[in-house]
């Protein structure tokens, strides 16, 4: 991978405002290498237990989990990949596939997604099958408390069913907001994700900190 999906879909002047330590995370992963991180999430999930049956359905495809826990150790592995919607290899797009493994009290669970550079911008394909996808807008503030942080905000959410892509109407579509920033004082990368919906509010979230590096791929992932 010579350029990452973030570099392929985000204007250079936006990425130039990134904190230097985040360039490793959002840059290309060299051949024969993998990005690995380890840290702790302060919170994961939702205390709204009436949502848990729905989350249990998403858990089958490694998207979200019916939990509400604090101080959850986790690891992340980012690997270069190619994903596509069509049956021919030529349609496959450059991607970074991430596996985030949460060590819950009940056992370990892994969240899977793949980031690609689509014609309209960054697209996050969620789960093992990628049936849910979100078109993301990338923003980086030059000033203020989040200066240098990358903020990804969903502008469209789609479901793939029976070979068709079904776009959710904006008035009911959930909204994903992901912020990645680097904390110089603690020397850690901090991440915060919030999934919300109109009227209902926050449906799911996680936030925490980790350390990350690009290392030779030993094939353990």
Note down, in words, how this protein is organized.
With 221 residues, the chain is mainly beta. It has helices spanning 5-9, 12-15, 23-26, 52-59, and strands at residues 33-45, 68-83, 93-104, 107-118, 121-126, 132-140, 150-161, 164-167, 175-183, 188-197, 201-216. Strands 1-2-3-4-5-6-7-9-10-11 form a 10-stranded antiparallel β-barrel. The protein is globular and about 40 Å long. The two termini are 18 Å apart.
Helix fraction bin: under 10%
Provide a count of the helices. Answer: 4
Terminal residue distance? 18 Å
The largest β sheet comes out as:
10 strands, antiparallel, barrel
Backbone structural class: mainly beta
Spatial arrangement of strands, main beta sheet = 1-2-3-4-5-6-7-9-10-11
Rg: 17 Å
Mean pLDDT: 91
Summarize the SSE layout with pairings.
Elements: H1 5-9, H2 12-15, H3 23-26, E1 33-45, H4 52-59, E2 68-83, E3 93-104, E4 107-118, E5 121-126, E6 132-140, E7 150-161, E8 164-167, E9 175-183, E10 188-197, E11 201-216
Summarize the structure.
With 221 residues, this protein is mainly β. It has helices at residues 5-9, 12-15, 23-26, 52-59; strands spanning 33-45, 68-83, 93-104, 107-118, 121-126, 132-140, 150-161, 164-167, 175-183, 188-197, 201-216.
Highlighted features:
single chain, about 220 residues, mainly beta, ten-stranded antiparallel barrel, 4 helices, about 10% helix
């Amino acid at each position: 991978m010579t350029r990452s999906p973030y570099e392929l879909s985000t204007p250079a002047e936006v990425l130039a405002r990134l904190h230097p330590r985040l360039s490793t995370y959002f840059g290309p992963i060299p051949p024969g290498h993998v990005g690995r991180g380890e840290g702790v999430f302060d919170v994961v999930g939702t205390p709204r237990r009436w949502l848990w049956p729905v989350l249990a359905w998403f858990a089958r495809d490694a998207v979200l989990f019916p939990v509400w826990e604090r101080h959850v150790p986790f690891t992340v592995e980012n690997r270069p990949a190619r994903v596509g919607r069509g049956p021919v290899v030529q349609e496959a797009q450059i991607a970074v596939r991430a596996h985030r493994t949460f060590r819950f009290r009940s056992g370990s669970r892994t969240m899977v997604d793949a980031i690609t550079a689509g014609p309209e911008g960054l697209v996050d394909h969620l789960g093992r099958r990628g049936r849910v996808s979100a078109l993301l807008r990338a923003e980086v503030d030059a000033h203020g408390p989040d200066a240098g942080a990358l903020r990804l905000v969903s502008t469209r959410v789609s479901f793939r069913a029976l070979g068709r892509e079904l776009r959710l109407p904006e008035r009911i579509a959930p909204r994903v907001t992901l912020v990645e920033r680097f904390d110089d004082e603690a020397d850690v990368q901090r991440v915060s994700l919030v999934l919300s919906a109109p009227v209902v509010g926050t449906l799911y979230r996680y936030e925490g900190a980790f350390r990350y590096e690009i290392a030779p791929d030993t094939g353990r992932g």
